[in-house]
Structure formats: structure tokens, C-alpha cells
Amino acid sequence: MFKGDSYIKDFFNRHDDDQRWLPLSDARNIQREWGLSVPKDRQTIGFKDIIADEYGISGL
Description:
single chain; 2 helices
């Protein structure tokens, strides 16, 4: 849950040398893939998280 639209925009702005969040394709259905039960008045979105460790090696 988020406080509002501006908080959401800042929270998902993860584009630096150490961490990047890439939005998943709209064609994917995270709710179905993971078997999630989500209320009809809620929205799900998915991101791929890429994190570089202290040696600059990226992982998922």
C-alpha cells in the first residue's frame, strides 16, 4: 500500500548504478502466474529487480 501517486512514482524510481527496476511486459499476468488473490479494486504491476553487488556484479 502506498500513500499516494507521488510516493509511488518516487518509490519505483530505482535507476542508478547499484539498482534498477525494469517494468515487466503488460502481456504478463503476475496475479495468475503466482496464484495471487487480489481484490478487484487493487492493481498489480511487476518489476524485474537488477542489483549490482559491491564488486559490480549484477544479479536478479
